[in-house]
Amino acid sequence: MNRSFRWAALLLTLLAASVTLPAPASAQLGGLARKAKEAAKGKATDKVDESLYVPPPAPEFDDRTLEITEDNFAGLMAGLNAEVDYAKSAGAEYKAREKAYEQARKDFDAAMKEYDKRMDAYEACSERFRQAEDTAQAANERKTEALADMDDDEFEAYVEDLYQRGEAIARDVQAGKNDSETQRKSREYQAEVAAMQVEQSRRMAQVMSGMAAESQRKRTENPRLAAACGEEPERPVEPESVLGGPESVLADKGAEAAGLTLQQYAMMRERVLYWSDEDGMPSGMGYSEGEMTTLKAHKGDIATVVERMEKAQLR
Predict the structure, then answer these.
(1) Which of 137, 147, 194, 309 is the most buried (most CB within 10 A)?
(2) pTM above 0.85, yes or no
(3) End-to-end Cα separation, the chain, in angstroms
(4) Which phi and psi (to 5°) does residue 60 adopt?
């Protein structure tokens, strides 16, 4: 496969979809190398008068499609020259990458088997721990409900009756009635009030105990889980596959030298080289006025790097 075609294929793989460019830009990407070869062989003989040339509308620039400014252009030239300089070594590095990936994949598969084994044991232990925690939580919640039956209508009626009986005894005593029957009622009343207060205190202590126990359980749950079952196993990181052949190595080198992301570099590379293939009057891609000015000012630089790329069989 021609290297330029493979570069176009790599670009499409990187972007995973057509970049927003005026139609028919996406269709033109795969044919750039063909156009360049036809032009070189003299097949593209139709020329457009430059004074009549009107470029297609510029694309919408974003974090993938950067405008070709002076700074970005300088970075791209550094990237293209880096590709040429590394062209002879790219094949060997790609083979080394493939070999390293194959080993990394074997190591990952082995690590995943161990991870699955450890994860099964951890999840079984964790499930037992959670069941015990649910039991403890339910017991604590039952304690906190100890006062609930002292707040219902029946208990409220009992308290009201107790209050009325106490008022009646107090009125009798104030009226000077202090016979044995009144004294009996007073003793029984006081004993009943004292018993109710004791029961209330007991239940309140039970509620506070349940609340404290639940707070302690929640606060220490994770450390106790780790102590019982160990730390949750960490899933191994799957190695990234190597794609694109030696061209992918050169893409990495070029993007690094250009100071751009791989997607930014691939798109700017394709746009600048297409501009060159179209002799500065592109019909399938749009360029802003500023981009056209920058590219025209560096036409000689572009021709020089294109010549280097052709000698290195990168186009």
Answers:
(1) 309
(2) no
(3) 11
(4) -85, 115
